[in-house]
Give the backbone structure.
Amino acid sequence: MSQNHEHHHDHHQESFISKYIFSMDHKMIAKQYLITGMIMAVVAALISLLFRLQLGWPDQTFPWLESLLGDWGKGGRLDPNFYLALVTMHGTLMVFFVLTAGLSGTFSNLLIPFQIGARDMASPFMNMLSYWLFFLSSVIMLVSLFVESGPAAAGWTIYPPLSALPQAVPGSGLGMTLWLVSMTLFIASSLMGSLNYITTILNMRTVGMKMTRLPLTIWAFLTTSILGVLSFPVLLAAAVLLIFDRSFGTSFYLSDIFIAGEALNRQGGSPILFQHLFWFLGHPEVYIVLMPALGITSEVVATNARKPIFGYRAMIGSLLGISFLSFIVWGHHMFVTGMNPFLGNVFMILTLVIAVPSAVKTFNYLATLWKGNLKFTPAMLFAIGLVSLFISGGLTGIWLGNAALDINLHDTYFVVAHFHLVMGSASMFGMLAGVYHWYPKMFGKMMNAKLGYLHFWLTFAAVYLVFFPMHFMGLDGVPRRYYNFTGFEYMSEWMDLNRFISVSAILGSAAQLIFIWNFFYSIRKGKDAPVNPWNSNTLEWTTPVERIHGNWPGEIPHVHRWPYDYSRPGAPEDFIPQTVKDDELPEELRSPKVKPVPERADAPAETVVDKVLFSRFLNLFGLKKA
Amino acid sequence: MEAAVPQPSVVKKRQKLHPKEFLMWAFLVSVFMIFAGFTSGYIVRRADGNWLEFVLPTGFLWSTIVVLLSSISMQWAVNMARKDNLDKVKIGVVLTILLGIGFIFAQFNAYNQLVNMGLFLVGNPSSSFLYIITGMHALHIVSAIIVLFVIFANVFQYKVHSKSMLGIRLASIFWHFLGALWVYLYVFFLIMN
């Protein structure tokens, strides 16, 4: 029966609108997310170039700025208020629109139904709604760039009072209102997406796809979505209170406050309250951004090292550990708010504990690469690049997690360097790895690998050239968010380095043009992709290249093994797809991987069971091969 | 509207819980997190001092009673749907809608009492919090009432019966959740004031 139904589906003619615009097909929605995310990334990158120009050449005038920005670039110099707005918009666009929606939205949508063996999401309609809410919120956020008083200027963390008083700075006016409207839609979109992803993963897996046979990408999307469902509503709560403070005169975040010498009619509020609520989202948000990239890396690294991922269960355990810990460490963003030192210690210890699951992941990647039969595809390079950035950015996290050090380093370029490496660039590398790896699945074409290598090396070099020197500026106490440093004698020695960073940023951004050209050119002119270009085990490579509605023309394949059976000795090829049945394989290659309890007449039953349980316990942490 | 074509043998085996029902529970978790955010903000802010203490108006007790009654009528409607007694389902759903509207009025009445006590939305955060938290809850009740209207219309089209329980069951889960949420909020405010 299902065969007939499918047959009908194959020849079903869809209108342009239902196929490309209001599509409910997860593959199309993934592409919509990707393209929107790329547009937002380009805007955010251009914005960063504008303020890098200001930081690199603070005394120079650029007449073209005036023709581009009008009053915001009067006399060819960037307006200080607009500089703050640009920094805010760069952060907002990158964190939420590119690395949350663009990354999670693209790959969760593309891979969840494909890799678990489902026809589509649990609710395709909600999935479509999720994209269009995201689209609407993107449009509103971009529109705020064009309002007369400029976009929001309180930083991407929108701390009150700058965000709570419309009269505070120009960007606190209409720009801030639009920011809040846009983010409210964004939260709704993100919640719908996350709820859908969780439901699909837990309920729609094909026969044999146990939770312990899921590819690590899916595990990462699952934990990411759980974080989203638990943390974004809290941001919504914070935003509601902020809206009431802004528009209806309440005083949640505003205590007695003077503006332009005049006392405002506010009483009893606390700006710190907003920081608590914001960072309760904000810290999980860091992992919402990072974990999908880590999941993609697991998959890409294992496939291209032609080796089983090292410590599969430890990888899952560390994802769960990071997710849990991410909810109880928000205070480390607030060490300098005058928090109780005892509380600071608690947050510090919990923060440093995160190093453990993160190190587990890092070492598992390295162990997977170790003595692998490495295939250096562009995706693989970006995945290895992620591991590199994750290490160099993660190490500084240990510094910043220490309250005593953070008091010195807070709000300096050290922090900027830290999160751009570990969260910004690493996640971006994960996203690019994913695009290179699953491009054949998305478009049925191959991207040009040579351009991919060029893109990788230029980007990799640029990222380190831009962000690594910032550590030293931060150690010297150069504060972030400053419009220029010419007025401070002790910072003048950093002027040349600032210029160097700006040049690197311009070159790094230009390198992305290679990627964009490669991406769009290959859609039309790329080589046709084979069904399984990377000889991968996971289910998405068993679907036809033509990408039909419902994913598989016949029945959904059943799953008989975990996804990482690469280079098993004795196997005919160096990969055994998840769909291969055990009886098609020689004895030693069969699942299940955990052996049954051995029968030993002479040993008491408990010892045998204990031994097996202990070995399974070790196995859980990847310490012992089953 | 669903584009997914479930495979009978595959899907039935693993689904103990309908995916939509799971989706509803996950959604309720996220709704609960909004209020968890509000109430923990309340606790943090209260601990800061400069906090106006007042006695919770009696009006909120009435709304608690109304919301508990509405849960009973909602459950009754579900039970009747299970027995295919559609006339009683209609009565049950209408009763629930009326009690829901009654709840909104009871909240309004409580707001009036607050205003008479001189506690406004604008002022010390202790009263602002009360207005906004209860207001957000009332907004959810309004959305649940809209859902119930849809269910009511579906009963007339014979879309709700013992073999098609999903819609009304989801609505009842949502409704009971909002009732329980209100009881939580009420007890929370009682303890805090």
